[in-house]
Structure formats: C-alpha cells, structure tokens
Write a structure and sequence with these properties.
alpha+beta, Translation Initiation Factor IF3, Alpha-Beta Plaits, 2 domains, 45% strand, elongated
C-alpha cells in the first residue's frame, strides 16, 4: 500500500515519488536493564551496583541468553547532592549505576525473563527500555520497495493517459529511503508485580520510497 505520491510532468517526462510499506511480526526483543544504588561512600555504592548487575546477568545467563546477546552498556558514579535552605548544597552520598543491553530471541519467554532479571536487582532495578524489532528486515523491505514501485507506476500511468501519452523507458530511479517511524508496542497490559506486564508483539512496519522518471511517448 502507498500514500499519495508526488508527481512532476515536464519536457516529455513524468517523475513520480511512490511510497509503500509492508508489515511483519517482530522476532527479537531489545531490553536495557539497569541498576542504581545509593550509599555513603563511592566504594559502597559502586560495589552495590556491581553486585546488582552481576545478579541480573546471572539470571539472564540462566535463562539461556548467549554471551554474544548480553553487553554492559555503561557504569557511572556520581555525588548525590541536595540544596537545603540556609545550608546550601549538601552531600547526601553517592549514586552508582550501570545497565545491561540484552537481546531476547524467544519472545514467548521474554516477559518472564525480564521480570526475573528485574526481581534479581530488587529495588535498585531500572527497566530503561524495551523494543520489539525484526532481526532481519531484508525480506519485508523487498516487499515495501515493490509496493512503492507499484504506487509510482500506477500514478505515472494515470498521468500519462491524461496527457494522451504512454509511458516509455525508465530514465532514472532514486531510492528515497524514508525515515523510520517508531512503532509503539501493540499491547502492554497491567499485571501483578510478581509476574510483570505481558508483552504483545503486534507487527512492525517497514516503509520504502522510490522516485522514478519515465519517458512520455505521444
């Protein structure tokens, strides 16, 4: 399917920008699980964050996540400061944090895996992001390009007929590559804290655009 294309007719040519899209169910979940620990010293905060991240990593490995699908995204330590009237800025302690980026390939058990990983870190856990994507969108991208081409071809043929002409040879083709549009999760339903929210995968959309110039034959 496509949107209303852009058309330009001039000097024996017709140029049309066609758009199209195709959809497929995602097969990969990208999750960022983080921790944030507060303590009175840098050492205590950093050690607590390390223990929490280790606990999360152990759960993920135990759930079958391959080492190649698990990556430490960052570690930070900062002073925890607060402003108090009459006293100015006061040091309350230190905050250490870090996160793990994980690829979950079994969507059927992904929600349970995320919930168990979050529980392992306790109150220091932070679920930073969760995305459902296609691990390989090459096949669905071909379908989107086909749809964009047919969109352009149909419109070009219509304008050629209106100009009492026919489409001749293709003079140029430009891949438009439209910017990807974020697709929200299809469903994120409320559930108990121990079970975690189940995730409905829905579908992901891949879009394509092509600008084609045809010769007009009268």
């Amino acid at each position: 399917m496509g949107q209303t294309p852009d058309v330009r007719v001039e000097a024996g040519m017709v140029t049309v920008t066609g758009t199209g899209w195709a959809e497929a169910a995602p097969d990969l979940m990208l999750v960022s699980v983080g921790v944030e620990c507060r303590a009175g010293s840098v050492h205590e905060a950093y050690a607590a964050a390390g223990e929490a991240l280790t606990a999360v990593g152990s759960v993920l490995h135990g759930r079958g996540v391959a080492p190649a699908d698990l990556r430490t995204a960052g570690l930070t330590v900062r002073a925890d400061l607060a402003w108090r009237d009459g006293e100015g800025q006061k040091l309350l302690g230190y905050v250490a944090g870090g996160s793990l980026m994980v690829r979950l390939r079994d969507l059927g058990s992904a929600s349970a895996t995320v919930s168990e990983a979050v529980r392992a870190a306790g109150d220091s856990a932070r679920l930073n992001s969760l995305q459902l994507v296609l691990s390989d969108d090459s096949a669905i991208r071909v379908q989107a390009r086909d749809a964009a081409w047919q969109d352009a071809l149909g419109t070009a043929g219509q304008y050629a007929a209106l100009a009492s002409a026919a489409l001749g040879q293709v003079l140029s083709v430009t891949d438009g590559r439209p910017a990807p549009i974020p697709v929200p999760l299809a469903g994120l339903q409320r559930a108990s804290a121990t079970e975690g929210p189940p995730v409905e995968p829905g579908v992901n959309r891949v879009e394509a655009a092509v600008t084609v110039t045809w010769e007009l034959r009268h």
